[in-house]
Amino acid sequence: MVLTVQNVMKSFPGADGDVPVLRGVSLSLERGETLALTGESGSGKSTLLHLIGGLDKVDDGSITVAGREITSMNDRDRSALRRTEVGVIFQQFNLIPSLTVEANIAFQARLGGAFDADHAARLSRALGLGDHLSKYPEALSGGQQQRVAIARTLTARPKLVLADEPTGNLDEATASEVLGQMLRLVRETGAALLMVTHSQSVARRMGRHVHLSQGHVV
Ligand SMILES: Nc1ncnc2c1ncn2[C@@H]1O[C@H](COP(=O)(O)OP(=O)(O)OP(=O)(O)O)[C@@H](O)[C@H]1O
């Protein structure tokens, strides 16, 4: 199992006391599995992704990533795990403007000490970025920038990829193509993928689908 989420609870402070967002969420993902996470706006999808990514802390319950329980880890160990085992792809690409495409792609793997130039070159080619490696992000289209963000994440060989509406701001045809490339590469690298999406057509292309409602997975 790459990911096990057990009975996770999370509330945020509101005007009239704490407002529960996750009320006992459980799910799991095996190596190579792809899972779509849907739910209404405000249902807690991003919150759950942040907790799994170790960017926020649960109130109760446990989260195990690549065999390690993260809720009891200190911040340093959690960031180390995030660098080496977890890859995150958000709607905003968060590319570094002063680095070339090639350096952006290498960045995360270098940070985690796992850079493999051949692997990076293969991923760049597979994502159609071969001719753009010496350019800077500003010279690329949105779809190309998103492909760089995907290549950057997968170059680090994460066991778990967390994606929050990664193709949400691309036109339909480009979104479909980028998603196809991403799914193929995730499968090839054997990673597990958890993807938040509002799109039923995106959800249908994933191996499994869970829906977040009233603080529970249904
Ligand atoms: N840091 C925070 N402090 C207070 N409330 C928060 C915080 N983060 C999220 N919330 C609240 O938790 C609820 C769930 O938010 P979350 O962003 O997880 O929803 P979502 O399902 O990802 O929504 P969307 O589809 O609109 O992105 C919302 O009511 C939000 O206002």
UniProtKB/TrEMBL annotation:
Q: Would the keyword DNA-binding be found if you checked this record's keyword annotation?
A: no
Task: Tell whether ATP-binding is among the UniProt keywords.
Answer: yes
Q: Which InterPro entries match?
A: AAA+_ATPase, ABC_transporter-like_ATP-bd, ABC_transporter-like_CS, ABC_transpr_LolD-like, MacB-like_ATP-bd, P-loop_NTPase
Occurrences of domain ABC transporter (ranges)? 3-217
Q: Note the superkingdom of the native organism.
A: Bacteria
What keywords is this UniProt entry annotated with? ATP-binding, Lipoprotein, Nucleotide-binding, Transport
**Which Pfam families does this chain map to?**
ABC_tran
One example GO MF annotation = ATP binding
Full protein name: Lipoprotein ABC transporter ATP-binding protein
Question: What species does this protein belong to?
Answer: Marivita lacus
Q: What is the lineage of its organism?
A: Bacteria, Pseudomonadati, Pseudomonadota, Alphaproteobacteria, Rhodobacterales
What gene name does this entry carry? attE
